[in-house]
Write a structure and sequence with these properties.
About 45% of the residues lie in helices and about 15% in strands. It is α/β, with parallel strands linked by helices and about 300 residues long. The protein has one domain: Vaccinia Virus protein VP39 (Rossmann fold, 3-Layer(aba) Sandwich), CATH 3.40.50.150. The two termini are about 20 Å apart.
């Protein structure tokens, strides 16, 4: 990912002089969205220009900013999000059950609210959750087989060759491009031979997915520092040592393995379209639902 460079990514973070697009706001107040956009754009520039040693602390602050935006949502929006999140986790656990055994050790990198890690504790022997901030120790009755590690996610101090499954869900897009390489290499080291890494991240070709989605932008300018296509992610995973990489299709609790050639072909077709045409196409509700099922980046990467 270092071939991307940070100059162009920083330039993308330049603040919009226009307000959010009213057609995309739904029930969100325009002034609230504009305020969070400015906050995220400033933090984006700081992360992209920071020295490597400074970035871990900045990631924690960025996560707090995202949490803060959620906590200032109207109560009905927060309740709807809580329901959506519980359903999402239930679906993920069902989808992951094919890759789990009672004896499995699982590593989740960037657990966020910790709901997935806690749910997986009911299915496996042990779960280690690694994050840049302590967002779980206040939770009552944490599972006894859940270990919390507060650390730089790029170089988590976990036992090498110890885990059967590693998961990172909606994290890579928030990292500096240089740090993505370190995180994936660390996951490879943590896995046992034959172990599996599952990566979930939004597809660049259907985005942007951060605060920029409320604006007329083609690329993220907030705290999604880089969104990936499957083809891009596959290359980065292979550079980290994962020789065998497959996409998954589906949604909810039903995921199936797909073909890298099929997904790559659809991505290449979308990439070749004029930008304005692609934007109209991926924003059509029926088309978007189908493309999300096929192209929402869900990658399986084995340590052979």
């Amino acid at each position: 990912m270092t071939h991307l460079g940070t100059r162009s990514l920083t330039q993308r973070g330049a603040m919009s002089l226009e307000g959010p697009d009213p057609r995309r706001l739904g029930n969100e107040p325009a002034d609230r969205i504009a305020e969070h956009y400015r906050t995220e754009a400033r933090m984006r520039r700081r992360i992209l220009t920071a020295a490597p040693a400074e970035r871990s602390g900045l990631y924690a602050r960025a996560y707090e900013a995202i949490i803060g935006r959620a906590e200032t949502s109207p109560p009905e929006a927060q309740e709807a999000e809580a329901i959506r999140r519980r359903r999402q986790v239930a679906g993920q656990v069902k989808a992951l059950s094919h890759y789990l055994k009672a004896s499995s050790r699982v590593l989740e990198i960037g657990p966020g609210d910790g709901l997935l890690s806690m749910a997986l504790c009911q299915r496996v022997a042990a779960v280690t959750a690694v994050d840049v901030r302590d967002g779980l120790s206040h939770v009552p009755d944490l599972p006894a087989n859940l270990e919390l590690v507060v650390s730089d996610v790029r170089a988590a101090p976990v036992e090498p060759r110890a885990y059967d499954l590693a998961i990172t869900d909606q994290l890579l897009e928030h990292l500096h491009p240089e740090d993505v390489e370190g995180l994936l290499a660390g996951a490879w080291t943590a896995l046992r031979p034959g172990g599996l890494l599952i990566v979930l991240t939004p597809n660049r070709l259907l985005g942007p997915h951060d605060i920029s989605r409320f604006y007329d932008h083609d690329e993220p300018r907030g705290l999604h520092l880089h969104e990936f296509s499957f083809a891009e992610l596959r290359t980065v995973l292979q550079l980290a040592g994962f020789v065998r990489v497959r996409p998954m299709m589906g949604g909810g609790r039903y995921w199936i393995r797909s073909s890298a050639a099929l997904v790559g072909g659809v991505e290449a077709t979308l990439e070749a379209l004029p930008t304005a045409l692609r934007r109209r196409l991926v924003r059509a509700p029926a088309v978007r639902a189908a493309l999300n099922s096929m192209l929402g980046v869900r990658a399986l990467a084995w340590k052979d």
